[in-house]
Design brief:
mainly beta; two-stranded antiparallel sheet
Length: 98
């Protein structure tokens, strides 16, 4: 087995798929890391998007929230990413069979 490190939430470009047809690029951009959102079920409580996992359903992960969210569960309240999250890269090791 070969061990690789990939960016969490990054879009793998080596996949055998039509990259323009199977991914919702507009949604991925709309819910990008660093944006401030609120859960529609908890108005006024603000959260920061940690990352958008394009290959996962639901795709939106919030900081300090253990469960991913669907787009219909959140409302974007600030369209500008917070400065502290713009340059942060989180990595998670991925084992890839060769």
């Amino acid at each position: 087995m070969k061990k690789e490190t990939r960016l969490r939430g990054a879009i793998p470009m080596d996949m055998n798929m039509d990259m323009n047809g199977n991914l919702d690029w507009e949604e991925a951009f709309e819910y990008r890391a660093g944006l401030t959102v609120e859960l529609k079920s908890q108005p006024g409580v603000l959260h920061t998007i940690a990352y958008y996992e394009v290959m996962m359903v639901p795709p939106i992960w919030l900081e300090n929230d253990p469960r991913p969210r669907y787009p219909h569960e959140v409302r974007v309240v600030a369209h500008q990413p917070t400065v502290s999250n713009v340059c942060r890269i989180s990595e998670s090791p991925v084992l890839v069979a060769s």
